[in-house]
Amino acid sequence: MSSKNRSMPSLHSDEAVEDFVATADLTRYDLSGFKPTRFEIEPKAAALNMRLPASLLETDIAQAR
């Protein structure tokens, strides 16, 4: 069993993170200090909720294609 004593490297770009995750053996790192994070790419300023008959929805989808 590997010792989990490596510290996480500083990653300054999405590409660096993707490369690290694709190639690193994450079992060698202590990830117990990580906390789940939720974020939105762009805040939502409006919402839309519509109830339509299925036939109308199918017609709109067919016309959009």
Structural notes for this entry:
InterPro entries: CopG_antitoxin (IPR022148). Pfam families: CopG_antitoxin (PF12441). There is one protein chain. With 65 residues, the chain is mainly α. The protein is built from 2 helices and no strands. The protein is elongated. The mean pLDDT is 83. It starts with 13 loop residues before the first helix and ends with a helix.
Number of helices: 2
Query: Could you estimate the helical fraction of the residues in percent?
Result: 25-40%
Structural class: mainly alpha
**Multimerization status:** single chain
The shape, in one word, is elongated
Name the helix and strand elements from N-terminus to C-terminus, one letter apiece: HH
The gyration radius over C-alpha positions equals 22 Å
Mean pLDDT: 83
Can you summarize the main beta sheet? none
Total DSSP E strands: 0
Distance between the termini: 55 Å
Tag the structure with descriptive keywords.
65 residues; mainly alpha; 2 helices
Provide the fold topology:
Layout (H helix, E strand, L loop, with lengths): L13 H10 L30 H11 L1
How is this structure best summarized?
With 65 residues, the chain is mainly α.
